[in-house]
């Protein structure tokens, strides 16, 4: 089995487990994430943090984003422009969010495009070494590469539920490991202090 096939099998298995969580468990888990990381993330006021609006059975990090805003974070959301490109548009209080394609919701084209300092990244699976499996399209990998090409090295924090952890993710050379993972049971650092 190739690495790509292994990742697809792990993705399908872990997303099925996430989908099987009750709505109540997902809500409680999402709220626990605020308790675990809302005050633990270390950043200066004005730091640009990218979150996401939940799709399917993802954790709902909107309460966490609201808390980070009260601490001075400047928020943005990823917007998928096409099959290859994500941009990060500023999320301003009172500004509408709209359907932005590929099942996502975010600020409209009038919003400023920002380069995040911290990315809260949805994922399918992760392991104890900080390797992750996304949804298979490579959007975040390409966005991270573009940011690095501009001299920007954002901190990467995976957002998942505990059921999405696996013993080992088959890592490939292009894969960018996470700096930390946030689940309903806690906030774990992998590489650097955030």
How would you describe what is shown here?
The chain is an alpha/beta fold and 194 residues long. It has helices spanning 3-20, 23-37, 62-70, 139-149, and strands at 48-50, 74-80, 86-90, 97-101, 104-107, 118-122, 125-126, 132-133, 155-159, 180-183, 186-189. The chain is built from four helices and eleven strands, in the order ααβαβββββββαβββ. Strand 4 and strand 5 (104-107) form a beta hairpin. The model has no long low-confidence stretch (mean pLDDT 92).
Stretches where pLDDT falls below 50 for ≥5 residues? none
Shape: globular
| CATH superfamily annotation | NagB/RpiA/CoA transferase-like
Number of strands: 11
Distance between the termini: 36 Å
Instruction: Give me the strand/helix succession.
Output: HHEHEEEEEEEHEEE
* Biggest beta-sheet profile: 7 strands, mixed
Which strand order spans the largest sheet, edge to edge or round the barrel?
3-2-1-6-9-10-11
Number of discrete helical segments: 4
CATH class: Alpha Beta
Proper CATH architecture: 3-Layer(aba) Sandwich
> What value does the Rg take, in angstroms?
16 Å
Helix content: 25-40%
Overall structural class, as computed from helix and strand content, comes to alpha/beta
- Calculate the mean pLDDT score and round it: 92
Topology, element by element:
Blueprint: H1 3-20, H2 23-37, E1 48-50, H3 62-70, E2 74-80, E3 86-90, E4 97-101, E5 104-107, E6 118-122, E7 125-126, E8 132-133, H4 139-149, E9 155-159, E10 180-183, E11 186-189
Parallel strand pairs: 1-2, 1-6, 6-9, 9-10
Antiparallel strand pairs: 2-3, 4-5, 7-8, 10-11
